[in-house]
Amino acid sequence: MLFEMVVLQLCREMSITVVADFVDEWGKRIWRILEHYVARARMNVDLSDFHTLGIDEFSIKKGHNYMSVFSDIDAARVIFVAESCRKETFDEFAADMEYRKYNLKNIDMVCCDMWDPYINGV
Question: Average pLDDT, stretch 62-74?
Fold first, then answer.
């Protein structure tokens, strides 16, 4: 447990590769530790006041490589991130919300680009 807490603190400041070298561990183990604690923390996020969804994308490389960000506009916090901006991204978002026991019918308003995959997804 102490090792994992040290790894988490180091990962806030360094890349996975640097942390793995520093603690003399495989990068895959560092990723598993991060994934475990991030998933655990996400399950503890209170979504009861989440009613206004914002959706936008940003480019991660030159060309057409995008990530989509789903956010709680009122609380100014990220709720979900996906590695594309296709219509299927909304299915991933819905599955994640279902896993987190959030009813999407609680969303009163959506703010997003007027782009076909987003409109169709909503």
Answer: 87
For residue 20, the model assigns a pLDDT of 95
Continuous segment of H or E residues that includes residue 74: none
Phi, psi of 90 (to 5 degrees): -70, -35
In this structure, the answer to whether residues 18 and 76 fall within a common structural domain is: no
- The pTM is what? 0.78
Domain that holds residue 74: 52-121
> What is the residue-averaged pLDDT of the chain?
90
User: Same domain for 38 and 56?
Assistant: no
Q: Comparing C-alpha atoms, which of 45, 46, 116 is closest to residue 87?
A: 116
15, two tokens: 């890349």
Q: Are residues 88 and 109 in the same domain?
A: yes
